[in-house]
Amino acid sequence: MNEQPITKTTPTRDNVTPSLAALIVVGATVTAATPFWPQALGAPPPLGVVLLGAGVVLAVIWHSTVWWRDLTEDQRQIHRKAWWHGGNFGILLGAAALLAVLATGMPIAPQPLSDHPAAWALFGFLCLLGGQAVGYGVAWLIHRLRA
User: Fold this and answer.
1) Which of 99, 88, 85, 103 has its CA nearest to residue 127?
2) pLDDT tens, 5-29?
3) Transmembrane region positions (predicted)?
4) pTM summary value
């Protein structure tokens, strides 16, 4: 019997580049208004910008999936531990920093911007996200140096 070996083709990061290039062209050229845009959000952005944003999100998901599959189990375990320990501790520190800013009344932006609720929401989001990212980075470095 003539058996041929089964070859498994795995996606690579190189497959993402042509798609991103096409999305940039579409994003720069398609200027039609986005359909079904809520009036409460103001004027609709060009359809190309929406397609570009959606494409970038999908490309990041694709790239992350390919990257994760390329890791060894030990590397994956280090990342899991770093996200769990560092991410949780970092978001706690980010929340403490946010509460400290709120309690002291420190300005978060120049005067015209600091009066807007959106600036406060963005500042809170960035405190939590920044704390989580820094916590992850420190925990990853510690786990990596131990391994």
Assistant:
1) 99
2) 555 555 565 666 777 777 777 777 7
3) 20-37, 49-68, 89-108, 120-142
4) 0.63
